Please model this.
Amino acid sequence: MKREAWWSLVLCGCLAAPVCGGTFGKAVSIGGHASDLVLDETRGELYVANFTANRIEALAVPDGTLKHSINVAPQPGSLALSPDGRYLLVTHYANYQTPGMPRNAITLLDLATGARQTFALSAPPLGAAFLINGRALIVTTTEFLSFEPVSGTVRLLDTVEGVTATTLPAPPANFPPQIIAASVAASRDQQVVYGLTDTIRFRYDLLSGRVVSLGYTAEPPLGPRVVSVSRDGAYYTAGWALFDRQGSVIAQFPGASGLLNVGSHAIDSDRGVIYAQIPAEEGAPPVLMIADADNLTVRERVQLPENLAGRSVLSSDGSMMYSASDSGVLILPVGNYSRARRLKTSSEEIFLRTGFCNRRVAVQGLWIEDESGATTDFTIASSHPAITVSPSYGTTPARVEVRADPNALQNRSGTAVAWLDIRSSGAVNLPSRVRVLASLLEPDQRGTVIHIPGRLVDILADPVRNRFYVLRQDRNEVLVFDAADYRRIAVLRTGNTPTQMAITADRRLLLVGNDNSQIANVYDLDTLVQTAPVRFPPGHYPRSLAAAAGAILAASRVAGPNHTIDRVDLLTRTASELPTLGVYENKVDLHTVLVASGNGSSILVAEADGSLMLYDANAATFTISRKDYTSLEGAYAASNSGMFVVDNLLLNSSLVPVGRFEKGANLSSGFAFDGDSGLLTLAPPGGGAGVMERVDLSSAAAVRPTRIAEAPPEREPGFALTRTLAPLANRQAIVSLTTAGFTVLSWNYDAATAPPRIDAVVNAADFSRPVAPGGLIAVFGEDLSPVNMATSEMPLPTALGDTCLTVNGAPVPMLFVSPGQVNAQLPFEAEGNVTLALHTPGGVSDNFPLSVSSTAPSLFHSGSAGPLVDIATVVRAENNQLATQANPVHGGDALVIYLTGLGRVWPAVPAGSAAPYDPLAQVVIPPAVTLGGTELPVLYAGLTPGCAGVYQINVRVPHWAPAGSKVPLTIDQGDSSTTVTVRVVQ
Amino acid sequence: MRILMPVVLLTAAAAGLAQTWEAGGSAGGSLSRNVGVSSQLGQASAGLASGAAFGAVLGQSIHRIVSGEIRYTFQPGEIQVASGGTRTSFRSQFHAIHYDLLFHTRPEGSSVRPFFAAGGGGRIFKGTGKENAYQPLQEYALLTRTREWKPMASVGGGVKIAISPRMFLRVEFRDYISPFPKQVIAPADGSKISGWLHSVVPLVGISVPL
Model:
């Protein structure tokens, strides 16, 4: 065999593999342009209409080898297979014009006998689909026809108007989706058929026997020109949009190019996903998105060997997807996607903290793994010179270290942002970029940053419940946070690209507007359950919502000449376009926001083009409209007293400016009214620390502008007006959206604070004096922190709630801060006499001398059971419950004793880091454990995996251990000892 | 125990001389009297909850109106503590094995033979429930998964009725009297449990001569 032939074989082998060269799927060339395909699972064949070669190609599934071809009449445009698999219906789009002759027709192939019949049509057929009753719906440019294959009879169902048929011959380089420009598809249960052309969308229900036709306009055109239907027909995708049965756009893929001949989609109802290629621009690389079927949130992006170009079908078990493509057919083993090589990172974002407590290089690890278990190459690069990653290439699994050097950041306070781009020649997916946030905090910067990944675009405090809501736009979610401890307590799914929230006047419902869904989501705030959405008129995307007493208004982006204000009817869950805005025409800027006053008396309409309007709830109409500015941007807010703020302008009840807040070169981001004053957040134009200033509404003067931990988030393109500030209803704290998530500031964040004072330092387990390296300590004193805050972040931060603690000048990891107590972990290197100091915005405490023993075992007394508290943390392994009088220790039991102060470990673990699972970090000085004088075999003594500063000793209780209600359990280690009593029974 | 064992040995020796043997099985229930628990917090009661009982007997006539028998009784049930309207319980098992002398009012061969019974043996109390770190009413007593043996006296009576030439219906009861099992139902610190445990066990069964 010649060398060239060997290479051909190798190449063929590579193409035959499901994954090759970093792409997913296998292309099968048919020597023509595929216009449609149907899957015949009974015969194991995929029929592909070869539009230009006038053939039906029968490919074997799943491998795609050509079994045979069937020559048919010219231009087979679409295919449909009867429910019993006997008939294959072929429509012929042969709309030839003079000097040619139209040869529009259908061909019925009897797959059982090989017989065929051809029926001429008066108009070019756009598509066909069989229903469960055995009849086929055929759609032409003028009619809906019902075709009975056994008798060959055709019945007229309805007529069509306004469909322009492309004539043949077509200009070169036009493809079937552009020529036919239509798609018809049935649900898997074959009860309902949906269709799409250039000018109409329609639904045909078998039960009603009626065609419901909807005209539409779409910008860009609804491409790819494919219809995919869910199993029961409850929803379908057509072009770049996901529609429900009524025709409302539930969601759409943002940024679609509208190309008719590039892309495809298929709905897997069982898995709740949609596989789709929706190109953003002509010439974009072919990428398949795996998206959630409810709101098109993209889970994964997969590289394809070539563009999809028409219908896709899934096998009944969802394991294989066959798509019309540039070469003919692309075969995608989507059921085996988990076995394809694909990269994933251990976290979507990295938050590095440096600052006045710690000016050392901040380091955090990031794992890059191939979820299939394969060894896959990667490169990784940072977009910021001061934020580096090492190594910059490797193979999976690999841990790379991300570093932020405060000196390289030029000690500029605030949060710097970098992006880590990960590439691979072997992985089939496009891994998401990892955002790295490097925070540099100076002592005068107030507030504690809570890192929340994602693009956060709106924040709203619940006026009656102790929580607040944050809109995460990139994941299409509302994040619900507990205002007591800032923990996320719920995640609510929204439509696509949520933009703004509003709470109804009765404070029961939360409304969310979406930029890529023609619905507003509605949630019951008592149960946090989503209820029926509000449907907007066709083409209306509610970007902003506001609820006043008796009226809920929405500013909608409209796929039409004018963007409008719509009125929401919660009873019917519908919205309608207002005919006029009082005496004014209903026409607003695309970038319009609405905000209601807290008492529901009015709604402010602020438009990026400089227009302002006011809806008066009492008059139930728009009473004011002004355009005093050429543009508006920044913060917006409405008060209960007829005052409004847009950007740094204070407006009276006639929307006339009565004051202007000082903002310098900064950009306003958030504003909140608070009685006679207000709070304004400002972002410096080039990044850095943000500023919050209290403003006097009578004079518009700024009172004590204060730097906050980081700047408000950058504005998203197309969203000039922002709401980033939420004073909590409990008046304990103010939450501001900022670069890395949100920043919590105490209500009196700008008050002068006293320097901290340390009174005592004890171990945090039983609050006794001895402490040991690596142990958890509790610092007691006064003014230790301006706020109460705990963290479960790992590694533990070295600054928490504006407070940091140093041991011999080096910052130590912290778990909890409050004005009277701080909990932290001692470094493993600290031993002997050390010095503690506490840093807060109020200053630095006096040095506190502390003697650190090499060992100081101390059991936690943090256990609770029913009404019992302060129970020593001795756990019986048998039932994983604390050993108590009611749950006594038995002979033969295994016990796990949780404690701190066991000193150094091997392998060494940095303080503040979670202890590893493998290898386990065992104590250097072994402890001895006795129960009533009987020595217990120690099975393990070391750090508890996943925790910082927490140790555990695992022991076995012999059967001869002495019984009693208060048997001493003693732990001796080095020169230290601790004892608790437990009940022991035999 | 020192007194009981010679009695058992003597009766067993006497049984060896006799000729008529009898074996049977029975089922019934168990009713127990709870014992008072006193604590600084108040009063409670603790003991055995009512439940089913199953027995097996091997007896032998040693005189025309006296017979002796070894009896085993198994009671699946619960131990419990109650105070006010609150009750907490714990799955348990009780095993009793004892030797009784039966004094009949009619001679052997009569179709109806009432009898009085008295004897002694031992009783095993076994807590088998699932322990939890907190147990309601644990300030009075702790229901514990452990095993405890106590000596036991047995008194009772009943009647044997011949329902065929080779089968007797036995209707009888016993009162098992034992010290309180303070390991299985352990008094909490500061609590005191005093009194004897009585379990009245009515049984209905069949026996056949061997």
